[in-house]
Amino acid sequence: MASSGYLQAVMLLLAVQLLCFRPSDAEQETGTVIPAESRPCVDCHAFEFMQRALQDLKKTAFNLDARTETLVLRAERRALCDCMPTNTLH
Question: How far apart are CA 37 and CA 25, in angstroms?
Fold first, then answer.
């Protein structure tokens, strides 16, 4: 009798799994499924790409910062030159 209850419990769990975890329709999928064994390479390439993009962003930010500093210094020098006679600057 105990094995009959066990079998019924297993069958009930199987039925619940089939109802809850239905396979998705093929129409809903947009793209191809990447096999599990190739995912680490894809993830690694994506990480490398993002790392290069971050380095490029850092370089761009540094260049913009340096350019902004140059422009501010130039504007300050112009403002200083405009309010002071040129012979006092030398």
Answer: 24
Residue type, 47: F
> Taking Cα atoms as reference points, which of 51, 87, 10 lies closest to residue 2?
10
Q: Tell me if 42 sits within 8 A of 34, measured CB to CB.
A: yes
User: What pTM does this model have?
Assistant: 0.40
Sign of the CA dihedral 26, 28, 29, 30?
A: positive
pLDDT, tens digit, 9 for 90 and up, residues 4-53: 777 777 777 777 666 666 555 545 556 777 666 666 666 777 888 899 99
Q: How far apart are the first and last CA of the chain?
A: 108
56, two tokens: 């490029």
Query: Quick check: 89 and 81 in contact, CB under 8 A?
Result: yes
